[in-house]
Design brief:
This protein has 304 residues and is of the alpha/beta class. It has 13 helices and 8 strands. The relative contact order is 0.07.
Length: 304
């Protein structure tokens, strides 16, 4: 055999039955015999120089120090979790997920890397790359929201399908997507950890971009808590309300508490909630919806 001939993918048996059982539909047997190159749903050792990077990779920046630390770990422990690739042609594969492990393995000097081989078209490649990116622990809220938006627009998913794909409730997905309605300056502040998602969700309830930016600047300058921001938003909403002549001479002892409840419920449900009560403590809660999908979203929150 010529020295220039690249090694074929070879099944590996050192990963144990546990990992094999996690890969749905794979053909892992724990044996070390060779497998054909066009076989999918298998775990195999693949030469690193046979693997192309993922053109749909949503991450554009990898921390070099973190990569080098991972490379040192790989030198000692090896690859604990195989990367995932798709088979293109003879001795050629394309990375689906596991870019950090792939890059760190190259730094560590590995010539082969364990990989789970599966079949995927371009849309599936994008979907899997985005979902793996969402599952990272160090993503900020805007990165998650943008990934959700790409899954909806580029992978033609509906919100309920998206929730199933990423293992999140539809309300959670909706709350993240609402962050993209904020002006760019506030999105950047959220991305850079100048404010938390709690701050951002309160700011969404302000009716104009100008007021949102004014409150955002005050939040950053004074390092206000989420509760304080909710209070500021509530005061802005009350200031914008015209006085009702029929209730001018009445005093409701629950007003302050009800406004706080309204703000919190509106943030939780992602829609404007009305809470009313008289001095005897009797009242009602109104939850508006504009479509069947919106109603189903609200019912999900209520666990109905």
């Amino acid at each position: 055999m010529s020295d220039n001939k690249k090694p074929a993918a070879k099944r590996i048996g050192g990963l144990g039955r546990g990992l094999g059982s996690l890969l749905e539909g794979n053909k892992y047997t724990g044996k070390t015999e060779s497998s054909t190159l066009n076989e999918v749903n298998t775990i195999a050792d693949i030469a690193i120089d046979q693997i192309q990077t993922n053109p749909f990779q949503p991450r554009t920046h990898f921390d070099q120090t973190a990569l080098e630390e991972l490379a040192e770990s790989i030198k000692v422990q090896g690859i604990i979790q195989p990367i995932t690739v798709r088979h293109l042609d003879q001795n050629s594969y394309q990375l689906i997920s596991g870019e950090r492990r792939y890059q760190a393995s190259k730094i560590a000097g590995l010539t082969v890397i364990p990989a789970y081989i599966r079949k995927a078209d371009d849309q599936q490649m994008l979907e899997m790359a985005l979902i793996e990116n969402i599952q990272r622990e160090n993503l900020n809220a805007i990165e998650i929201a943008l990934s959700y938006q790409r899954l909806l627009s580029e992978c033609s998913l509906k919100q309920e399908e998206l929730g199933d794909r990423v293992g999140k409730k539809r309300t959670t997905v909706t709350n993240y997507l609402r962050l993209l309605k904020l002006p760019p300056d506030i999105q950047i502040g959220l991305r850079d950890n100048m404010i938390s998602m709690g701050h951002a969700r309160a700011l969404i309830n302000i009716d104009t971009v100008e007021k949102q930016l004014d409150v955002y600047k005050e939040v950053v300058a004074k390092e206000l808590s989420v509760r304080k921001v909710e209070e500021l938003v509530r005061n802005l909403q009350n200031a914008n309300k015209k006085p009702d002549p029929q209730h001018k001479l009445q005093f409701n002892k629950y007003d302050g508490e009800l406004k706080n409840v309204e703000t919190r419920l509106s943030s939780q449900f992602g829609t404007k909630i009305q809470v009313k009560a008289n001095n005897d403590g009797k009242g009602e809660i109104k939850i508006p919806f504009v479509s069947v999908d919106e109603l189903n979203r609200i019912l999900d929150i209520l666990n109905y």
